[in-house]
Amino acid sequence: MSDQQQKTAQRQTHEHLRAAEDMTQTALRAWGDMIETITGQTAEIVERNVRFTDELASQVNRTLLDSLGVWRQLTHDSLTSWRNYLQAITDITIQNTHDVADTATRSVGQR
Predict the structure, then answer these.
(1) Tens digit of pLDDT for each residue in 41-60?
(2) CA 102, 104, 108, 111 torsion: positive or negative?
(3) Is the pTM of the predicted complex or chain greater than 0.90?
């Protein structure tokens, strides 16, 4: 091999190594950029999901508390109506008992 051929071979080898080095650096930068992008997007997704979950939990809690308030009021109103009904029945029964007793007393007194 002549000096010229040897220099050409060395130059081509050097160019190929430089090209391989450039491709390797480009690939490493691309991988770094990709990892940074994926990490950033993953963090954003996790943050959005945490906020969404928190908002959903708040809505569920508000709905539950509202439902419990409605249930409490409904139960109170129902029990109040039931007490009033029972009191009315009791009053009618007592009044009828008094009326029957008065009628019986008058009947006995008229004989």
Answers:
(1) 999 999 999 999 999 999 99
(2) positive
(3) no
